[in-house]
Amino acid sequence: MDYYVVIPAHNEEAFIKLTLNSLVTQTLLPKKVIVVNDNSTDNTEAIINSFATEYPFIEKLNTTSTSEHMPGSKVINAFNKGFLLLDESYDFIVKLDADLILPENYFERIATIFREQENIGIAGGFVYEKDDNGAWKLNHPMDKNHVRGAFKAYTNSCFNAIGYLKCAMGWDTVDELLAKHHGFAIFTDSNLKVKHLRPTGKSYNKKAKLLQGKAMYTMRYGFFITAIASLKMALKQKKSQTFIDNMKGFFDAKKNKTPFIVSEKEGAFIRDYRIKNIKKKLF
């Protein structure tokens, strides 16, 4: 199977060489890799250039956006610019972070999953991060059937059906909800262990704390589902402030009439899906 990879990168000199090394040693190599150098001020561009010189399937795109590291909008804006350089001749496409080490058979396995189970639209492995003792431990705080945004692979048909990636916080939740809306399944493979070199959210701007609630508003969750989801997050993180921040973000978005990122029909499906899941866990 043919696949494309797009890697948004902002000041990733500490990690991107390891990520690209794990890409060029894959047992199934990508057809093309677009590395989007997004306003980096360190040695990131020079590292990308060295790989692009040696490997003809790697291409660099320079772009400029905000210097703030915000979840969602910045990274997907960079991804979308890279995606514009690609054609439709691919079986699956991958959004990949620049701070990962992939097992060498990662994409061969992803290709096999898509080839053998045609109903699957999104696939990926699991994140492992170093603990205080330097041991690699599973870090997957969400449902086990959720693919982390750091390494999401989409079939061509699924990617087109969901209307590509939304340039907003919550993009890696709404993509899976829309995939299910269009009849696609999500698959996670516990045998694919991806090393994440920077713990999630460590470099995010402080403004990001209100964006989760805003995302729930733009996905048309409504008050009830937002409150339940926020309470669940707060309990899991053992931080009551999470619930307060989420709800403030939700009401700020509502007050400001922030545009929705899904249609009314898609929103109705999302609410129904979320409510069914809540009932399953309660009863």
UniProtKB/TrEMBL annotation:
Pfam families: Glycos_transf_2 (PF00535). It comes from the Bacteria. PANTHER family: GLYCOSYLTRANSFERASE (PTHR43685), GLYCOSYLTRANSFERASE 2-LIKE DOMAIN-CONTAINING PROTEIN (PTHR43685:SF2). SUPFAM superfamilies: Nucleotide-diphospho-sugar transferases (SSF53448). CDD domains: CESA_like. Residues 5-153 form the Glycosyltransferase 2-like domain. One of its GO terms (molecular function) is transferase activity. This is Glycosyl transferase. Gene3D superfamilies: Spore Coat Polysaccharide Biosynthesis Protein SpsA, Chain A. The lineage of its organism: Bacteria, Pseudomonadati, Bacteroidota, Flavobacteriia, Flavobacteriales. The keyword Transferase applies. The keyword Calcium does not apply.
